[in-house]
Design brief:
11 helices, five-stranded mixed β-sheet, single chain, alpha/beta
């Protein structure tokens, strides 16, 4: 058996500080820990570096401070932002939103563009990634490899999807958006023509269970009363 570190305890809360680019503190999580500690307090030391910066355990720190409990801690010199990121990634505590904030705080251009795009269109993470980079890859997003391929094309396609909202309230449906992207990739698809067909077909566009069903329905609406074969759209 080998001793590698010691656990200390203090009520001097001022000796601790938060490290930059750590995930945003969740008040709900702090309250959950407080409720648990009020029933039974288990010793779970926080991890700090030689500067007193919290590498792991900021929620436990705030909960114990709120309860006026002394803070158990382990000090590990040389730890910093990189180790904080590794620990959170390994324990899967960070959400995609946490990673977005982390990379935005580092002023990484692609993540700043992603954040503004997501806030503007209110699409899901998968949808924003697909529109901006051509695919959805959460692991690459977490690892800092997210890249915007064509911002102009992404905004143009997003605007076209939003324009369908006038006729279809579920235009943000995941499968519908996949179907629309497939339409955009079809060289014979004309979005203005599709909107025109929607304008006089009432509630013809309805929610479907999968991408294929949406494509069949879009094709049917698009080709409604089209006599010229050259103007008909084929999505299969």
């Amino acid at each position: 058996m080998k001793k590698i570190n010691e656990v200390f305890e203090t009520s001097d809360y001022n000796m601790f500080s938060f490290i930059s680019n750590n995930r945003v503190v969740s008040k709900a999580h702090v309250n959950k820990i407080i409720a648990s500690m009020e029933k039974k307090r288990l010793v779970s030391p926080i991890l700090i570096n030689e500067k007193g910066q919290i590498i792991d355990g900021q929620h436990r720190f705030l909960a114990q401070k709120e309860l006026s409990f002394p803070i158990p801690y382990i000090k590990q010199s040389g730890y910093g932002e990189k180790e904080t990121q590794i620990l959170n990634n390994n324990t899967k505590n960070w959400s995609l939103g946490d990673w977005e904030l982390h990379y935005c705080n580092k002023n990484i251009r692609d993540y700043l563009i992603y954040r503004d795009f997501r806030r503007q269109y209110r699409f899901t993470t998968e949808q924003c990634q697909t529109l901006l980079s051509g695919q959805s890859n959460n692991e690459a997003f977490k690892d800092g490899f997210f890249k915007v391929e064509d911002f102009r094309k992404a905004t143009m396609r997003a605007d076209m999807i939003v324009s369908v909202g006038k006729y279809f309230r579920d235009y943000k449906d995941r499968m519908f958006m996949r179907a629309m992207i497939a339409c955009f990739d079809n060289k014979n698809y004309n979005h203005n023509r599709f909107l025109k067909k929607l304008s006089y077909q009432g509630n013809s566009l309805v929610k479907c269970v999968d991408k294929k069903s949406y494509l069949r329905l879009i094709e049917e609406i698009y080709n409604f009363k089209s006599r010229e074969t050259s103007k008909k759209l084929r999505l299969f």
